[in-house]
Here is the input.
Amino acid sequence: MRWGSWLALAGLNAFLSIASGAFAAHALSALGDAHGVGLMEKSARYQMYGAFALVVCAWLAERGLGGRLVAVAGWLHLAGVVLFCGALSAIALLGWPAGPVAPLGGSAMLLGWGVLAWIGLRARREA
Here is the structure.
């Protein structure tokens, strides 16, 4: 994927992260749903981490660094955000039993960060 696409996805995720955090702070807090607030705040925080990872992917792709591994890292982070943050939001807002999905998303994010670390280690050896 081209760097501009990664940057656009990063911006969208950051936007949604701030929006969901604000929703948790105002709408859910007003309802007195402390558990829902906590889940949505965690979801928003991890979605922002995912947005940051996508900015890193955009930066690497724009400079032609990391090759196809940049796309692997980006897709892993995007899948992680959808699965992890989506599961937490579904539990908080709809009461859906999405808990078993969250670890899959967390694992995808961990793998995404691992791939970015691998890119860095490879670049260090090549320099």
The chain has four helices and no strands. The radius of gyration is 16 Å. The mean pLDDT is 93.
